[in-house]
Amino acid sequence: MPLIDYHFLDKMLPKAKIKKSFTKLKSSYLIRVRFATALFYFGMGFCFATWASRIPDLKLSLKLSEADLGTLLFALPIGQLLAMPLSGKVVAHYGSRKIAIIGLFVYALFLSFLGLATQSWHLGLGLFLFGFFGNFCNIAVNSQGVFTQQLFDKPIIGSFHGSWSLAGFSGALLALLMLFLKLTPFQHFLVVVVLISLLIVFNYKFLVKFKPQKIEVKEKTSFFKIQDTSLIWFGIISFCCMASEGIMFDWSGVYFKEIVKAPGALVILGYTSFMITMAIGRFLSDLLVRKFGSRNVLITSGIMISTGLYSAVLFPYLISCTIAFMLVGFGVSNVIPIVFNAAGNSKKVPTSIALTIVSSISFMGFLIGPPVIGYIAQMTSLRYSFAFIGIFGIVISLLTYKLKLFR
């Protein structure tokens, strides 16, 4: 039985002068629900992309070294970790719809606070709060994605992740415009707060309403007592992918500025090219899996991640690094949609619990990877840091090849 009973759509039919059938009304309304959910994913990704696009400017204005920046970046995962036990309970109690609405606005609000930093501890505190409230937003919006999926017969989760990636590209374009207009990070972030507020106002009514997590409450499954061990392997594969993705968000701009020596606004060219190919790859994910199979797509994705990162290390030039970052974008684009879909189909653990377990492991790679890179870069160089992360792509391919999870 589906998690959501959408017979409430009957109430939308007028009593007289019916101009279209219930089937068409239901179809058009569900499309609007899907669009609203995708836009909340977009808003979440847009906030994070905005922060990532101005890291080089904040690093320069605060006179931070690679190690200093790496240390400050730890504040974000610490906030994320401390919020995990609380955010899950809050979303379960109040429902993902309410928390998604409030969480996305607060997430954008604390983004603007990052632009006010005049000392390193200001940025550290801002990143802690950004990560803390970002976790509430992340869990609530992803829960909306899971429940929206229940309304459709075909898989649509990939398109939601694609919306998140598309937001990264859009955030990079806006950053180019802000740099051209010579706006400060704070002014840039305020523009984003306004845009996110408009997104919420025009779409919150179409988020899915449901009684929060009745099924999950009855389950004994937890992160420390996992009934399906394959979820651990899914988590490790996702960890490797998101560690690679995380350094592209946080360090690609710095790499182009300090290693490639890209002039002016071209410092975010690598980040922009990465986001373009990642967005395209995620929208093509379902098609590629149907044609080649999830196992082959994952093995190829791991190879592309490693090839892209090592190419950037060996050939640190503008054009070659841009192409290399595009390869990394294609590589990481398919891993999360495929793995999350496989985890969600676990026969031993409810879908939402399985996704929580896998996403908890994987998101640590997204958050912990970039700070570690800062320390490696301080001890050696940023090129060696990227070479270290390149190993993760190989791990993805080897694990997928050896395990029988995707056959």
Describe the structure.
Helix content is 77%, strand content 0%. With 407 residues, it is mainly α. The longest helix has 32 residues, at 22-53. The two termini are 27 Å apart.
Summarize the helices and strands and which ones pair or pack.
Elements: H1 22-53, H2 55-61, H3 66-73, H4 75-94, H5 96-114, H6 120-149, H7 157-180, H8 185-203, H9 214-218, H10 230-258, H11 269-283, H12 285-292, H13 294-314, H14 318-333, H15 335-344, H16 351-379, H17 382-402
Helix pairs in contact: 1-5, 1-6, 1-7, 1-8, 3-16, 4-5, 4-6, 5-6, 5-8, 7-11, 10-11, 10-14, 10-15, 10-16, 10-17, 11-14, 12-13, 13-14, 13-17, 16-17
Give a nutshell description of this structure.
With 407 residues, the protein is mainly alpha-helical. The protein has helices spanning 22-53, 55-61, 66-73, 75-94, 96-114, 120-149, 157-180, 185-203, 214-218, 230-258, 269-283, 285-292, 294-314, 318-333, 335-344, 351-379, 382-402. It starts with 21 loop residues before the first helix and ends in a 5-residue tail after the last helix.
